[in-house]
Please model this.
Amino acid sequence: MDSFKGSISSLKANQSVSDGIKSVYPHAEVRAFPMADGGEGTVETLVDGMDGIHVNLEVTGPLGAPVSASYGYLGSEKLAIIEVAAACGLPLLAKSELDPFATTTYGVGELICHAYNEGARKYIIGLGGSATNDGGVGMLQALGFEFLDEDGAEIGYGGGSLQDIVQIRLTPEADKFSDCEFRVACDVSNVLYGENGATYVFGPQKGAKEESLPELDAGMKHYAEMTFEQLGFDISNIEGGGAAGGLGAAFHGYLGGMLQSGVDLVMEVLGVKKVMKNANLVITGEGRLDAQTSMGKVPAGLAAVAAEYRIPVIAVGGSLTDDAYELNNAGIDAVFSIQSSPMSIEEAMQDELTRFNLEKTVGQIMRVLKLNAKVEIPSPS
Model:
């Protein structure tokens, strides 16, 4: 199960579903995996699933002021799990503060550096939810890369400073990360700049006004041109390079990161596929099931793997939209809402009520499956 955002965690959702199954099939072997799609909740999911720890520290926030952030760490694996939103996410700013000309990813680099000093040499990065459009330059500055203006000084924070880049330097401090492995959860295909790039597609939700988009996008293009001219690699057409305001391009180009589907990455790390091939049934779900669920979300990712082994999939959600039933054509055999009566969203999202409704709904689904042995429906003659 994925989390029910704003209500219960993936871990709690899994427990409720397990309890629902056991209420009807007490001897069933249930294997539960916390799940996420690479966005919010990925750190918690993987830390829970791999018995890691949370590391808390203070880093540079999106507008330069310090913010409290955390990342997951598994010492035995030398693995750090980082959500970029922890350091530069939209929720860290009020709507009136959003300004992609000024917001920076510097804090993401500080999280990476801290984890490196703790011993991390492998990283899982969750992109998404950033308030930035700086191409990942802030992060790279924190790692030791130098982006200098015509006076030989470091450029300032934010997408508005990308036009000032005249020289890029790879320092020994930055070069040490060449021995690290970066796996990046990225579920968008947008490139770095242009009409389908980071600025035009995602800039408005980060506070960019329509009339300022060409200037902001020009800065991103200049950054890509300077990168190619001085370092010899092209970050302009990387699929997913425009994710998180260009962080996708920075990770792939500057750090050799591999961009991949978030849910596929989580399933691979947790070993879901090896267990699923022996399953009789997969139950998955999230807070809201709709047509978008088929586009890189947890239930769709699990359904794709289940299809390889011809395992039926049932999805349960806090709510179903009218188009949720289209999921029956996308590998999910049946979908159910857990709501039992009309109520406000606030009431429906209460922790205890969500867990109760989830457990009881799954219990009833199991009872219907049990009827299969008792009810024979005759075929048409």
Q: What stands out?
A: The chain has two domains: 10-31+279-371, 42-262.
